[in-house]
Amino acid sequence: MSPFDETRARRYLLGQMSEEETASLEAEYFADGEALERVWEVENDLVDAFVADELAPDDRTAFETHYLASPLHRDRVATARVLRAATLRTAAPRRRVPAWSVWLPLAAGLVLLLTWWAWPRRTAPTPTIARAEATPTPAATAAPSPAASTSPPKTSVAAFALSPLLMRSGQPAPVLRVAPGTDELKLTLEGERPEGVASDARLPFVVKTVEGETVARGYVVPGADVLGVARVPADRVPPGDYILAVRPSDKEGRLLTAREGADDVPLRQYFFRVIAR
């Protein structure tokens, strides 16, 4: 495969390629996981530049007419605007607090303490203690506490189905609405198992952010009429965009490396977005 060309990927995202060039790029880049992640990086840079009003006039026009034609892309730009606004608010300079205002409450407290200590004290009379016969009282019987439950805490699982998705299709990525308190996501990966992969094989998977950060790993459990089921801890995928890639493995489910005959091309890739319910 030829070296990654950032300018070429940028033209692809802005719709500045012919149909033949577009098809050639997708066939070349979408077959390689690393190249696909580089395309996502270029896309993120384009979105950030658009939100910051840093695109050249021609690129801005292409961005608005081509990129924003997709509902998924409009959602990403809206999210980028919110994140940028939050970042600018956080970076705003704070009003400096005078040093004397920090010590003023402490000094006032010290003055009150010295005043109380110096105040003349009167000796209170010693109270007369009346002798009384002690009446024995029966010891209170503690109410039996309810037996502690020995059953393990229940795990809250949210189930979703994912389909393979190409970035250029214009179809929005599946949106997973995750309720607060969810412990695990059960992701059913649609699509037939690739030729040569046994129906009972355990296939390793990895979940990454669109920026390329790995957030979760595991194994796909074989399923009926689908590639399988992947279980992901909910706390590893906060609101954002993600790529789930299923990788080739040997009969024991061990991830194959390039030296062992794997070409580093994922068997399947799934894009999805997580939002809070």
Description:
The protein starts with 5 loop residues before the first helix and ends with a strand. The protein has an 8-stranded mixed beta sheet, with no helix packed on it. It has 277 residues and is an alpha+beta fold. 31% of the residues lie in helices and 21% in strands. It folds into 2 domains: 6-88, no CATH class; 157-276, Immunoglobulin-like (Sandwich), CATH 2.60.40.2550. The chain has helices at residues 6-13, 19-29, 33-51, 57-65, 71-90, 99-118; strands spanning 157-162, 175-178, 184-189, 203-209, 214-223, 226-233, 240-246, 268-276. Mean pLDDT is 75; it is low at 122-135 and 255-263. The longest helix has 20 residues, at 71-90. It contains 6 helices and 8 strands.
| Strand order in the largest sheet | 1-3-6-5-4-7-8-2
> What's the quaternary structure here?
single chain
Average pLDDT over all residues: 75
CATH topology of the largest domain: Immunoglobulin-like
From the spread of the alpha carbons, the general shape counts as globular
The helicity comes to 25-40%
Percent strand equals 15-25%
Rg, rounded, reads: 32 Å
Largest sheet: 8 strands, mixed
Q: Supply the CATH class of the largest domain.
A: Mainly Beta
Total strands: the figure is: 8
- Spatial gap, N to C terminus: 42 Å
| Class from secondary-structure proportions | alpha+beta
CATH architectural designation of the largest domain: Sandwich
